[in-house]
Design brief:
Elements lengths: L4 E4 L9 H12 L7 E4 L18 H10 L4 E5 L9 H7 L2 E3 L3 E5 L2 E5 L10 H10 L2 H9 L2 H21 L9 H10 L4 E4 L6 E4 L5 E4 L9 E5 L3 E5 L4
Parallel strand pairs: 1-2, 2-3, 3-4, 6-7, 7-9
Antiparallel strand pairs: 1-10, 5-6, 8-9, 10-11
Helix pairs in contact: 1-2, 2-3
The chain binds manganese (II) ion.
Manganese (II) ion binds next to loops.
Length: about 240
Protein backbone atom coordinates (compact mmCIF):
# COMPACT_ATOMS: atom_id res chain seq x y z
CA UNK A 1 0.00 0.00 0.00
CA UNK A 2 1.32 3.40 -1.01
CA UNK A 3 0.25 6.90 -0.05
CA UNK A 4 -1.32 7.28 -3.49
CA UNK A 5 -4.51 9.20 -4.22
CA UNK A 6 -6.48 8.77 -7.46
CA UNK A 7 -9.14 11.10 -8.84
CA UNK A 8 -11.67 10.35 -11.58
CA UNK A 9 -14.92 11.92 -12.78
CA UNK A 10 -17.38 11.90 -15.66
CA UNK A 11 -17.45 8.19 -16.46
CA UNK A 12 -21.10 8.72 -17.46
CA UNK A 13 -21.82 4.99 -17.16
CA UNK A 14 -24.48 4.20 -19.70
CA UNK A 15 -26.08 0.88 -20.65
CA UNK A 16 -25.73 1.98 -24.30
CA UNK A 17 -21.94 2.31 -23.94
CA UNK A 18 -20.81 -0.92 -22.24
CA UNK A 19 -17.14 -0.32 -23.11
CA UNK A 20 -17.00 2.50 -20.54
CA UNK A 21 -18.15 0.10 -17.81
CA UNK A 22 -15.55 -2.44 -18.95
CA UNK A 23 -12.80 0.20 -18.85
CA UNK A 24 -13.87 1.28 -15.37
CA UNK A 25 -14.01 -2.29 -14.03
CA UNK A 26 -10.49 -2.90 -15.38
CA UNK A 27 -9.27 0.34 -13.81
CA UNK A 28 -10.80 -0.58 -10.44
CA UNK A 29 -9.38 -4.13 -10.52
CA UNK A 30 -5.90 -3.14 -11.64
CA UNK A 31 -4.73 0.47 -11.40
CA UNK A 32 -6.85 1.51 -8.42
CA UNK A 33 -5.74 -1.46 -6.30
CA UNK A 34 -2.43 0.30 -5.69
CA UNK A 35 -4.11 3.44 -4.32
CA UNK A 36 -4.87 4.35 -0.76
CA UNK A 37 -7.81 6.60 -1.70
CA UNK A 38 -9.97 6.94 -4.80
CA UNK A 39 -12.09 10.05 -5.25
CA UNK A 40 -14.96 9.95 -7.75
CA UNK A 41 -15.81 13.58 -8.51
CA UNK A 42 -19.29 13.16 -9.92
CA UNK A 43 -21.11 12.01 -13.03
CA UNK A 44 -20.13 8.42 -12.39
CA UNK A 45 -23.49 7.63 -13.99
CA UNK A 46 -25.00 9.17 -17.10
CA UNK A 47 -28.11 9.43 -14.98
CA UNK A 48 -29.02 8.25 -11.47
CA UNK A 49 -32.66 8.73 -10.55
CA UNK A 50 -32.79 7.13 -7.12
CA UNK A 51 -31.37 4.16 -5.25
CA UNK A 52 -34.56 2.14 -5.86
CA UNK A 53 -33.42 1.77 -9.48
CA UNK A 54 -31.96 -1.76 -9.63
CA UNK A 55 -29.74 -0.55 -12.53
CA UNK A 56 -28.77 -4.06 -13.68
CA UNK A 57 -26.44 -2.65 -16.36
CA UNK A 58 -24.24 -1.23 -13.59
CA UNK A 59 -24.15 -4.24 -11.25
CA UNK A 60 -20.62 -5.26 -12.21
CA UNK A 61 -19.21 -1.78 -11.59
CA UNK A 62 -21.04 -1.51 -8.25
CA UNK A 63 -19.78 -4.93 -7.10
CA UNK A 64 -16.24 -4.13 -8.26
CA UNK A 65 -16.31 -0.87 -6.31
CA UNK A 66 -17.43 -2.80 -3.24
CA UNK A 67 -14.58 -5.32 -3.64
CA UNK A 68 -12.08 -2.48 -4.01
CA UNK A 69 -13.46 -0.74 -0.92
CA UNK A 70 -11.99 -3.52 1.23
CA UNK A 71 -8.49 -2.23 0.48
CA UNK A 72 -8.92 1.32 -0.90
CA UNK A 73 -11.06 4.09 0.61
CA UNK A 74 -13.64 5.25 -1.94
CA UNK A 75 -15.24 8.66 -1.91
CA UNK A 76 -18.05 10.01 -4.08
CA UNK A 77 -18.93 13.64 -4.66
CA UNK A 78 -22.15 14.25 -6.61
CA UNK A 79 -22.22 15.51 -10.17
CA UNK A 80 -25.08 17.14 -12.04
CA UNK A 81 -26.28 13.74 -13.29
CA UNK A 82 -26.03 11.63 -10.16
CA UNK A 83 -26.83 13.99 -7.28
CA UNK A 84 -29.71 11.69 -6.28
CA UNK A 85 -27.26 8.96 -5.25
CA UNK A 86 -27.90 8.16 -1.60
CA UNK A 87 -26.79 5.84 1.18
CA UNK A 88 -28.38 2.66 -0.17
CA UNK A 89 -26.22 2.71 -3.27
CA UNK A 90 -23.24 4.05 -1.31
CA UNK A 91 -23.42 0.97 0.92
CA UNK A 92 -23.80 -1.40 -2.02
CA UNK A 93 -20.75 0.17 -3.68
CA UNK A 94 -18.64 0.68 -0.55
CA UNK A 95 -18.31 4.41 -1.21
CA UNK A 96 -18.50 7.32 1.22
CA UNK A 97 -20.55 10.29 0.06
CA UNK A 98 -18.76 13.60 0.51
CA UNK A 99 -20.07 17.10 -0.19
CA UNK A 100 -18.27 19.74 -2.24
CA UNK A 101 -16.14 21.70 -1.75
CA UNK A 102 -13.89 19.01 -0.25
CA UNK A 103 -10.57 20.21 1.19
CA UNK A 104 -7.49 17.98 1.38
CA UNK A 105 -3.89 18.50 2.35
CA UNK A 106 -1.52 16.59 0.09
CA UNK A 107 2.16 17.07 0.85
CA UNK A 108 2.41 20.79 1.59
CA UNK A 109 -0.40 21.71 -0.80
CA UNK A 110 -3.96 22.64 0.01
CA UNK A 111 -6.33 20.98 -2.46
CA UNK A 112 -9.99 21.69 -3.29
CA UNK A 113 -12.17 19.07 -4.97
CA UNK A 114 -15.36 19.92 -6.85
CA UNK A 115 -17.47 18.43 -9.60
CA UNK A 116 -17.00 21.61 -11.61
CA UNK A 117 -20.50 22.72 -12.57
CA UNK A 118 -20.50 25.40 -9.84
CA UNK A 119 -17.54 27.04 -11.61
CA UNK A 120 -19.53 27.48 -14.86
CA UNK A 121 -21.18 30.68 -13.69
CA UNK A 122 -21.60 32.15 -17.19
CA UNK A 123 -24.34 29.61 -17.75
CA UNK A 124 -27.09 31.43 -15.86
CA UNK A 125 -29.88 29.12 -17.02
CA UNK A 126 -27.99 26.09 -15.76
CA UNK A 127 -27.20 27.69 -12.38
CA UNK A 128 -30.88 28.53 -11.90
CA UNK A 129 -31.84 24.97 -12.81
CA UNK A 130 -29.16 23.60 -10.47
CA UNK A 131 -30.42 25.64 -7.55
CA UNK A 132 -33.90 24.25 -8.09
CA UNK A 133 -33.00 20.58 -8.38
CA UNK A 134 -30.47 20.70 -5.54
CA UNK A 135 -33.09 21.94 -3.04
CA UNK A 136 -34.15 19.26 -0.58
CA UNK A 137 -37.79 20.14 -1.20
CA UNK A 138 -37.57 19.52 -4.98
CA UNK A 139 -35.69 16.28 -4.38
CA UNK A 140 -38.20 15.00 -1.82
CA UNK A 141 -41.08 15.62 -4.23
CA UNK A 142 -39.17 14.10 -7.18
CA UNK A 143 -38.12 10.97 -5.27
CA UNK A 144 -41.73 10.30 -4.28
CA UNK A 145 -42.70 9.82 -7.90
CA UNK A 146 -42.54 6.34 -9.41
CA UNK A 147 -39.25 5.34 -11.04
CA UNK A 148 -41.01 5.29 -14.42
CA UNK A 149 -42.26 8.83 -13.93
CA UNK A 150 -38.80 10.01 -12.87
CA UNK A 151 -37.29 8.39 -15.97
CA UNK A 152 -39.72 10.22 -18.19
CA UNK A 153 -39.05 13.60 -16.54
CA UNK A 154 -35.28 13.06 -16.78
CA UNK A 155 -35.48 12.19 -20.48
CA UNK A 156 -37.49 15.34 -21.16
CA UNK A 157 -35.06 17.47 -19.14
CA UNK A 158 -32.03 16.07 -20.93
CA UNK A 159 -33.56 16.64 -24.34
CA UNK A 160 -34.16 20.27 -23.36
CA UNK A 161 -30.70 20.56 -21.84
CA UNK A 162 -28.81 19.25 -24.87
CA UNK A 163 -30.83 21.52 -27.14
CA UNK A 164 -29.96 24.48 -24.90
CA UNK A 165 -26.26 23.57 -24.73
CA UNK A 166 -26.04 23.22 -28.49
CA UNK A 167 -27.29 26.78 -28.88
CA UNK A 168 -24.73 28.26 -26.48
CA UNK A 169 -21.23 29.45 -27.21
CA UNK A 170 -18.60 26.91 -26.21
CA UNK A 171 -17.04 29.30 -23.67
CA UNK A 172 -20.29 29.76 -21.83
CA UNK A 173 -20.29 26.11 -20.84
CA UNK A 174 -16.68 26.22 -19.58
CA UNK A 175 -15.57 27.52 -16.19
CA UNK A 176 -15.59 31.27 -15.54
CA UNK A 177 -11.99 32.47 -14.90
CA UNK A 178 -12.99 34.88 -12.11
CA UNK A 179 -15.04 32.19 -10.36
CA UNK A 180 -11.99 29.90 -10.49
CA UNK A 181 -9.73 32.57 -8.95
CA UNK A 182 -12.21 33.38 -6.20
CA UNK A 183 -12.49 29.66 -5.45
CA UNK A 184 -8.69 29.45 -5.00
CA UNK A 185 -8.80 32.58 -2.79
CA UNK A 186 -11.75 31.52 -0.66
CA UNK A 187 -10.08 28.26 0.33
CA UNK A 188 -6.48 29.56 0.25
CA UNK A 189 -5.93 26.64 -2.10
CA UNK A 190 -2.88 25.69 -4.14
CA UNK A 191 -4.64 23.10 -6.27
CA UNK A 192 -8.17 22.82 -7.65
CA UNK A 193 -9.35 19.50 -9.11
CA UNK A 194 -12.61 19.12 -11.01
CA UNK A 195 -14.26 17.53 -14.02
CA UNK A 196 -17.64 18.27 -15.62
CA UNK A 197 -16.49 20.33 -18.60
CA UNK A 198 -15.00 17.36 -20.51
CA UNK A 199 -12.01 19.57 -21.28
CA UNK A 200 -9.12 17.68 -19.65
CA UNK A 201 -6.10 19.86 -18.99
CA UNK A 202 -3.68 21.50 -16.59
CA UNK A 203 -4.00 25.25 -16.01
CA UNK A 204 -1.40 27.32 -14.17
CA UNK A 205 -2.14 30.54 -12.28
CA UNK A 206 -0.12 33.05 -10.28
CA UNK A 207 1.35 32.06 -6.89
CA UNK A 208 2.05 28.57 -8.31
CA UNK A 209 -1.63 27.65 -8.20
CA UNK A 210 -2.78 24.86 -10.51
CA UNK A 211 -6.14 23.62 -11.75
CA UNK A 212 -6.40 20.03 -12.95
CA UNK A 213 -9.39 19.21 -15.13
CA UNK A 214 -10.31 15.54 -15.34
CA UNK A 215 -11.56 14.23 -18.65
CA UNK A 216 -14.61 12.13 -19.39
CA UNK A 217 -14.22 8.39 -20.03
CA UNK A 218 -15.66 8.33 -23.53
CA UNK A 219 -13.97 6.32 -24.87
CA UNK A 220 -10.64 6.35 -22.96
CA UNK A 221 -10.13 6.38 -19.18
CA UNK A 222 -8.91 9.64 -17.65
CA UNK A 223 -7.51 10.02 -14.14
CA UNK A 224 -5.27 12.12 -11.95
CA UNK A 225 -2.82 10.54 -9.52
CA UNK A 226 -0.92 11.97 -6.58
CA UNK A 227 1.78 10.45 -4.41
CA UNK A 228 4.44 12.09 -2.29
CA UNK A 229 7.24 11.08 -4.65
CA UNK A 230 5.75 12.12 -8.01
CA UNK A 231 3.18 14.75 -7.00
CA UNK A 232 0.24 15.18 -9.39
CA UNK A 233 0.19 13.44 -12.77
CA UNK A 234 -2.74 13.70 -15.18
CA UNK A 235 -3.27 10.53 -17.20
CA UNK A 236 -5.37 11.41 -20.20
CA UNK A 237 -4.67 10.49 -23.83
CA UNK A 238 -5.84 13.96 -24.92
CA UNK A 239 -3.44 15.96 -22.72
MN1 LIG B 1 -21.12 17.13 -15.00
Amino acid sequence: MTDEYLFISDCHLDSNKPEIGTNLVNFLRQRALAAHNLYILGDLFEVWLGDDDPAPAHTEVIETLFDLSKTTRLFFLAGNRDFLLRNDLAQRAGIEIITEPVLLNLGNQKVVLMHGDLLCTDDHDYQTFRKKVRSSKWQAVFLQKSLLERQKIATDLRTESSAATALKKVEITDVNPDTVLSCFDRHSADVLIHGHTHRPGIHHYDRARTRYVLGDWNPEPSYLSWNSAAGFVLHDPRV
